[in-house]
Amino acid sequence: MGIKPLLPGPLGFGTAPLGNMFRSIPDDEAAATVEAAWAHGIRYFDTAPFYGAGLSEIRLGEVLAGRPRDAYVLSTKVGRVILDELEDPAARDLGEKGGLFEHGRPNKMIDVYTADATLRSIEDSLTRLKTDRLDIVWVHDVAQDFHGDDWLAVYETARTGAFRVLQRLRDEGVIKAWGLGVNRVEPIELTLDLDEPKPDAFLLAGRYTLLDHERSLQRLLPAATEQGVDMVVGGPYSSGVLAGGTHFEYQQAPADIVAKVERIKDLAAGHGVSIKAAALQFALAHPATAAVVPGATRPSRIAEDVAALAESVPSAFWAALRDEKLIAANAPTPAA
User: Fold this and answer.
1) Could you give the C-alpha distances from 118 to 82, 147, 164, 248, in angstroms and in order?
2) Terminal-to-terminal C-alpha distance of the chain
3) Which of 44, 72, 77, 141 is catalytic?
4) How far is CA 266 from CA 151, 270, 271, 308, 336, in A?
5) Catalytic one of 44, 51, 113, 208
6) Scanning 110, 166, 187, 291, which has the fewest C-beta atoms within 10 Å of its C-beta?
7) What pTM was estimated for this model as a whole?
């Protein structure tokens, strides 16, 4: 159990933005960003069919196809199948994430978590990524934010379909690990309670950040630590608001979040700390965290992420965050 030995380091590259999240990104800019990640030593790349209806996988595959396959770790997701039929990307029903990839490809996406759909999704991803194998496969978005009150029924379909297929593929050595890739803690908590099947890790986006971590600390992370199941933290910048952007939870950040970010920035500035260093190092400080996978669409952002991990953050800064109740009292922080 666990994926820390599999991952090449604590910093990966989350490629959701390459699916034209929030804006239409030129192909050359997307390629240059992946090239920059490689040039800065990043060797773990995470993607999904959902990101622009396959656009992120296609763009990532174009660049990585020229690299030795054994030199990097690749994860993608199942739960959505991309069809040849076309639709209006802006009109898709994405639950709480409406309009997220309205600039992506117009291919129709269907949510389906059965065994057969899981195998089809993997084959389609291999084609788009121009590779012969995947290292990690996440079951994507089996949670309330996308499926509303029906999410438990969707989860049950995944449990008896996708979960079992992925465990078999792992046991056969076709993939190296599997788990869930979600924006909510509830499906992970349910999965940790299962006797069988047992995942290796989870990708949790947005729920273990400077802005939102108390729920994860209550039950999820202690249980993951006890069971030896690793966590990959997605969205460590909370959809961008912690890195100079205006989005939180994939929508425009509300006033209270903006105010909290400004308080954190003021403390960071007072201690000579960059906000990116605070965000990434906080997420990595929990013993269950195996890696963080921030996204980017500009090459310069990659250099900032790498520098943020190497930055020295004084213990007084974390103490100040705790004193101001900007982080939970029981949240682990990096050693000085």
Assistant:
1) 12, 18, 10, 30
2) 30
3) 77
4) 39, 6, 9, 17, 20
5) 51
6) 110
7) 0.96
Structure tokens at 84: 């040849």
Q: Which of 4, 28, 44, 46 is catalytic?
A: 46
Q: Is 97 one of the annotated active-site residues of the chain?
A: no
Whether 250 is catalytic is no
The pLDDT profile of the chain, 336 residues, written as one tens digit per residue, is 799 999 999 999 999 999 998 889 999 999 999 999 999 999 999 999 999 999 999 999 999 999 999 999 999 999 999 999 999 998 888 877 777 899 999 999 999 999 999 999 999 999 999 999 999 999 999 999 999 999 999 999 999 999 999 999 999 999 999 999 999 999 999 999 999 999 999 999 999 999 999 999 999 999 999 999 999 999 999 988 898 888 788 778 899 999 999 999 999 999 999 999 999 999 999 999 999 999 988 999 999 999 999 999 999 999 999 999 999 999 999 975
Three-state SS string over the chain comes to CCCCCCCCCCECEECHHHHCCCCCCCHHHHHHHHHHHHHCCCCEEECCCCCCCCHHHHHHHHHHCCCCHHHCEEEEEECEEEEEEECCHHHCCCHHHCCCCCCCCCEEEEECCCHHHHHHHHHHHHHHHCCCCCCEEEEECCCHHHHHHHHHHHHHHHHHCHHHHHHHHHHCCCCCEEEEEECCCHHHHHHHCCCCCCCCEEEEECCCCCCCCHHHHHHHHHHHHHHCCEEEEECCCHHHHHHCCCEECCEECCHHHHHHHHHHHHHHHHCCCCHHHHHHHHHHHCCCEEEEECECCCHHHHHHHHHHHHCCCCHHHHHHHHHCCCCCCCCCCCCC
Placement of tokens 């069919």 in the chain: 49
